[in-house]
Amino acid sequence: MLPAAVTVLILLLLIGTVLHISTSRSDTLAVTRQTDLVSVAIRHSIKSIANDQEASTLWDDAVLQLRQRPLDYDWIDNNLGIWFNTYYQHDETYLIAPGGQVIYAMVGGRRVRTEAFGLVAAKADPLIAEMRKDLHSGTAAPRGSPGQTKGVVDFAMVSGHPAILSLKPVVPETDEIRQAPGQEYLHISVRFLDGSYLTALRSEYGIDGVRFSVQPTAPGAVGLRDRSGNRIGYIVWDPFEPGEQVAAQMLPALLAALALIAITLTILLLQQRRNRLRLAESGAAIEHLAYHDVLTGLPNRASFRNRLDAALNAPHNRDQIAVLLLDLDRFKLINDAFGHAAGDAVICAFAKKLIALVPLPNIVARLGGDEFAVILDGPTDVRELCENILAAVDEHLEFEGQRLHIGVSIGIAYAGHTGTHGEELLRKADIALYRAKADGRDCFRFFDQHMDERIKRRTVIERELRNAMRHDDELALFFQPIFSAQINSPVGFEALLRWHQKDRPAWTADQFIPVAEESGLILSLGEWAMRQACEASLKLGDAFVSVNLSPLQCRSLEFVGHLLKIVKESNADPRRLQIEITERALIEGGEEAIVAINSLRSAGLRLVLEDFGTGYSSLKHLRSMQFDKLKVDRSLLYQLGEDGQAADLVAAVFGLGKVVGMTMAAEGVESVEQRDMLIAAGCAEMQGHLFAPALPLEGAILLIEQRPATAAA
């Protein structure tokens, strides 16, 4: 209950603080609003007094009446004096002649002796002098000023009352009466800011307790300053503060809400206590799940990392510590063919074999999926252990009467060879695992520094290739001529990608194409190359252009769709475009590759099976795919002329091509003897350094233009 009580108390303090801040803010805003109202009222009063005066001082009759002698005081009472008190509630008015004499005085609604001006003179004389000086430049008010004539207004204490003093000249409203500058009569009006003025302010604006004070004795106060900046006092009032009323109304509801919250918290805390007891009972099981794989019961990745760090930090010879990373080969095929239940059975069976083979106190863990890891911490024959693991996996596994075949690739790294940092040790083992898979899988490899250098070089190539693809001056297509054996003239070109860098030696295609395939860049690179090849085909007359597709490109129906779109957009003739595909691409691509390649054939492109004779070839693919041309791999030509069996093998391969009715071509022809033997075997097209190297597009165009001379040569 103590946490609940503390929580409710804190909540009460928070709510009280928020309520206090909000009500105080509300009161402050209310006072600010009333202050603005009072300030507006005072400004309005100043403007109103001047407007009241101008209604009678801008008047031809007023000018004429004040010039008459004797003065008509009754007229002045009714228009410039007593009438201002009766109608406008002005408390005092005075008329000053051009020579400075006071010719009229009204106080409290009665005409009085002019000596009464003496009580106002001290405050009015500076305003009169300022007004006289300003009138020499004209009587019209400046543009943007209120009213039509000039005027002067100021706050002052008059007879112990705060007051507004307003001066206006008596001037004609028409041009019929001439008024010499400096000869104007001045009308002075005084409006006290207490008494009736405050009564009107209270009734019109709802300001309670409004009064004048020489000090700001209330929260609501507006200061009054004269033109010299001297403070004459304050208009103060009792401000309306709604915050206190709101607080009084909200407090009971808030207390009720707090009581409800306290009850709810108590119930929740009791429930939490029961849950905590349940969690304590199952704590061991939860901890086991957090650090062990659910399927196999082996330590998981988190537990493996903790144990690896502990082994590396233990005070013993670290050279004996080794990490093995194991990845099952062809595991995805089992999942796809037999379902995840079969995959789980394989994982469990392999885990049991691994536990049986790895001696204690070494650690076996499952990192996830089909990836396992072993920490060897002691004298162990690692090579023998890996061979035993490979042999155990080679044994058949059964699932629901089905025999399942899998393999395993293993990467090994020693702590003594790579440092004692766990992350670095795992990275090195992963590099060795990558090498094992690259070497054909179902094998093990020890990490060495050359592997790291290859990985770093691959990273450099990938980074620089990405950068090169963003520029147009590094990558280019070269075109190797393909000659007809019958007319000894170029009939086509094979497009070959070249990469030239300004600041370093160029990467060869054998170096960067595999990196492009592994990183997925080969798709974008292939689209770029196809676009360049299509544009080149439009400039090479009737010669065809041959473009190579990688296994990854063959598997992507989306990529093939982009190629066909490029052909259409470039207006290239698909009959003069050939697509070269290796049988390895067909085998690795499966059904997706067959569908993709058939779509190319349907669009009119010719298909070439290249690297024929390297060991993949089978009649199945030759018959099912209906290739237009077979290109014999250069490896079959190396011993032509030196080995009679080589000639027989070439003749047999070309004979197979004739049987299936396909055009036969050869690449890598480097000698006249090779050429002659190929012609004798029935080869229709040849390419190689004997004929011409790969040329830039300009050279290929020139070669086509010179075909008659080339054939003669």
Give start-end ranges of low-pLDDT stretches. none
Largest beta-sheet details? 8 strands, mixed, barrel
CATH superfamily of the largest domain: EAL domain
Going by helix content, strand content and strand pairing, the class is alpha/beta
Tally of DSSP β-strands: 24
Q: Give the averaged pLDDT, no decimals.
A: 84
Description:
- Helices cover 51% and strands 20% of the residues.
- It is of the alpha/beta class.
- It has three domains: 2-237, PAS domain (Beta-Lactamase, 2-Layer Sandwich); 288-447, Alpha-Beta Plaits (2-Layer Sandwich), CATH 3.30.70.270; 466-712, TIM Barrel, CATH 3.20.20.
- The strands form five sheets. Strands 17-18-19-20-21-22-23-24 form an eight-stranded mixed barrel, surrounded by four helices. It has a six-stranded antiparallel β-sheet with strand order 3-2-1-6-5-4, with helices on both faces. Strands 11-12-10-15-16 form a five-stranded mixed β-sheet, sandwiched between helices.
- Helix 11 packs antiparallel against helix 12, helix 16 (509-519) packs across helix 17 and helix 19 (557-569) crosses helix 20.
Give the gist of this structure.
The protein is α/β, with parallel strands linked by helices. It is built from 25 helices and 24 strands.
Note the topology:
Elements: H1 2-57, H2 60-67, H3 73-79, H4 82-88, E1 92-96, E2 102-107, E3 110-111, H5 118-135, E4 152-158, E5 161-170, E6 185-192, H6 196-205, E7 211-213, E8 220-225, E9 231-237, H7 242-281, H8 283-291, H9 301-313, E10 321-329, H10 331-338, H11 340-357, E11 363-368, E12 371-377, H12 382-394, E13 397-399, E14 402-404, E15 407-414, H13 415-418, H14 422-438, E16 444-446, H15 449-469, E17 475-484, E18 489-499, H16 509-519, H17 521-537, E19 544-549, H18 551-555, H19 557-569, E20 577-582, H20 583-602, E21 606-612, H21 619-625, E22 629-632, H22 644-659, E23 663-666, H23 672-681, E24 685-686, H24 697-705, H25 707-712
Parallel strand pairs: 15-16, 18-19, 19-20, 20-21, 21-22, 22-23, 23-24
Antiparallel strand pairs: 1-2, 1-6, 2-3, 4-5, 5-6, 7-9, 8-9, 10-12, 10-15, 11-12, 13-14, 17-18, 17-24
Helix pairs in contact: 1-7, 10-11, 11-12, 15-16, 16-17, 17-19, 19-20
